[in-house]
Amino acid sequence: MTAKTGETTPAALTLWGRATSVNVQKPMWLMAEIGVEYERIDVGGPFGGLDSAEFTALSPHGQIPVLVDRRFGPPIVVWESAAVMRHLAEAGGRAGFAAATQLWPQQLAARATIDRWAEWAQANWYPAIATLFVGIVRAPAPERKLDALKTAAETAGRLAQTIDAALGQSGGFLAGPALTLADFPFAALLHRYMTLEIGRPETPMLSRYYETLKTRAPYAEVIAVDYDPMRVPGAERSATPIV
Ligand SMILES: N[C@@H](CCC(=O)N[C@@H](CS)C(=O)NCC(=O)O)C(=O)O
Q: β-strands 66-69, 13-16: how paired?
């Protein structure tokens, strides 16, 4: 894993986006699990660069992550973190990375089980956790919209209980006894859910799942990282739940 800019020969695999973005962390975690080398270019947030000609030629949205894959001929450009992850898993399998095939198996039935959880997390879990993260970490206390935060915390708690029940039946991970692509969109945000200053219902299976993930180096190094440096003045960590 490297972070370089200004190279004359483009890398085979380039990820555009700052490492503090959870949507960039998703493919970073996946590539660490697959074991594939890539370069990462810091753009977005304090780095800026999302309106540069080079970046807007890659994506019309001005958002990270963007992946450029040059391993299979003309550059393949992918944006949207879920599409980026699916591409990386599929392409990793074709490039001979055994871990990629385990994360995104060929069998249709296995893929359906994996993909439904991945989509569910993107559509349901992500908005609730993003609301909490932005409203707590990126907003000074006097400006916080507590009603919206309370609703998001209740939604997140309800979804966490859904996952808790599913994990009780699945054998350890979301789509079975092993880590698959199903886990990435959900668990990339789980660290924030588990550590933000919010009330959480009891979810023993989910807690065990989180502790297991933290024993994996890629998760510990990419996802379970300190985000307190992203707090704006007035949003310092509270010792008690905010909602
Ligand atoms: N649905 C998109 C959302 C992308 C998104 O919201 N990216 C944020 C970072 S998490 C962004 O580009 N923010 C602008 C910035 O970082 O400057 C995805 O999953 O990729």
A: antiparallel
Strand 2-3 and strand 13-16: the pairing is unpaired
| Cα distances (angstroms) measured from residue 17 to each of 44, 158, 160 | 6, 31, 28
Q: How far is the CA of 23 from the centre of ligand 1 (A)?
A: 6
Q: Candidates 43, 63, 88, 131: which one to mutate for ligand 1, based on the most atoms within 8 Å of Cβ?
A: 63
Query: What are the tens digits of pLDDT across the range 138-150?
Result: 999 999 999 999 9
pTM for the model: 0.96
Greatest extent of the chain over all pairs of C-alpha atoms, in Å: 53
**Ligand 1 centroid from CA 44, angstroms:** 8
Examine domains 2-103 and 108-230 and report if their fold is the same: no
**CATH superfamily, domain at 2-103:** Glutaredoxin (3.40.30.10)
